[in-house]
Amino acid sequence: MGRQGFEYGVDGPKTIVTGVDGSDSSWRAVAYAAGLARRQGALLVLVYVQPVVTASAAGVGGTLLEVGQQVAEDLLQHIRQAVKRFGDHRSIRWEFHTFPGDPYTGLLTTADELRADAVVVGASEQAGHRIVGSVAVRLVKAGRWPVTVVP
Question: What are phi and psi of 73, to 5 degrees?
Fold first, then answer.
């Protein structure tokens, strides 16, 4: 009667991955995903992918990695403050993941590895993405999970 792999009694997402980079649209995506995770009792996984920039000058690469790590630490501190400010921190389960790479591949890999049920991202605020394609559009085209793009 039931198909192989079908989960009985599971309703809604259990793991929600959302990208955060400090932009206004990414914070709106985090807020949306947090509300969804709280209502569904899902795990919220916040992902900051530290941009990797190729540098020809010696020593610049180390500096860029340090800057990426500092941004990650600042984002995590901001998230912790928001969790405290908006009530009982036990009402939502969350994790913060960060690593260097490109945002599309980082979110795709994280969502696949964690077997995410949904991905939430902010709409791109960069004009150049109309030509190349934003991370959100590329995630939708991957077709692996429902993707919500928050303006």
Answer: -65, -40
- What does the pLDDT look like over 46-103, one tens digit per residue? 999 988 765 544 455 555 666 777 788 888 887 877 777 665 556 789 999 999 999 9
Assigned CATH for 15-150:
3.40.50.620
Instruction: Tell how many helices (H) and how many strands (E) occur in the chain.
Output: 5, 5
* Spatial distance between the Cα atoms of 26 and 45, rounded to a whole number of angstroms: 13
Structure tokens at 132: 């190349």
What is the rounded distance in angstroms from the CA atom of residue 16 to the CA atom of residue 1?
A: 29
- Which distant-in-sequence residues (6+ apart) come within 8 Å of 67 by Cβ? none
DSSP state of 91: G
Q: What is the pLDDT of residues 103-149, one digit of tens each?
A: 999 999 999 999 999 999 998 876 544 544 688 889 999 989 999 99
Q: Tell me the C-alpha to C-alpha distance, in Å, between residue 55 and each of 62, 86, 100, 128, 141.
A: 10, 41, 14, 21, 31
For the chain, the structural domain boundaries read: 15-150
CA atoms of 46 and 96, how far apart (whole Å): 5
